[in-house]
Amino acid sequence: MLHEGMTTLTDALADPRSSVRLRAVMAAGTTADPGDLDVLLEQCAVDPDLQVREALTWSLVRLPAGLVVPRLVAELDRPEARARSQALHTLSKIKDSSVYAEVVERLGDTDPGVRRTAWRAAVVLAPEQERPALARRLALELGEGDRDRRLALSRAIVSLGADVAAPVLADASARRGEAVREHVAETERLLDDPDAASSLALERARREMALGRSKRASG
Fold first, then answer.
1. I need a surface site. Which of 119, 148, 153, 187 has the fewest CB within 10 A?
2. Comparing C-alpha atoms, which of 129, 194, 182 is closest to residue 157?
3. What's the pTM value of the predicted model, to 2 decimals?
4. Local mean pLDDT, 10-residue blocks, the chain (219 residues)
5. How many of the other CB atoms lie within 10 Å of CB of 149?
6. What does residue 34 show for φ and ψ, rounded to 5 degrees?
7. How far is CA 23 from CA 13, 19, 52, 55, in A?
């Protein structure tokens, strides 16, 4: 009977319609059958729909953590970036800090999207004594990338709390270049006002547009 149910889930997840896959994943989460674990994990690596992937995380979280967590850690070494990212996201929802060291290893992932997911997961899972070191590690990324990447990094650093983030930001601003100082200022604004993210993104978009026009004019 279990095999028959798994076959049904497998068939549904092969459907090109995201609505069909979503219903199948939600049904699997409602049943919370450990026998579905392999199928759900495999779908994490391939499903292109964000809503379905969120449902996959929800379904995996409903299974026994003792079974799921080791399998998610193993997924962090898979070649598919989507599998690694989804595993990190799901681990952050389970909130088992015993896997913090494995999550930190993905801070240097070759895929930018996986690195950003690792920032968020590491912040959630970091034990109290590891938070200053994590802040210093994240601060090495300041000043790099586009506005979405910068805002994601700022949010991760701010999530560590002002007592941890503020001294690290001050040190980065004192020791590094103009791009870092600008990013530090943006992050400090978020520390003071968590609702400032949208205005920061708009300001950076305007600066990038102005810079682009300036380069075209000079070129």
1. 148
2. 194
3. 0.84
4. 56 96 96 96 96 98 98 97 98 97 96 96 97 97 92 95 96 91 94 70 58 55
5. 16
6. -55, -20
7. 9, 6, 9, 9
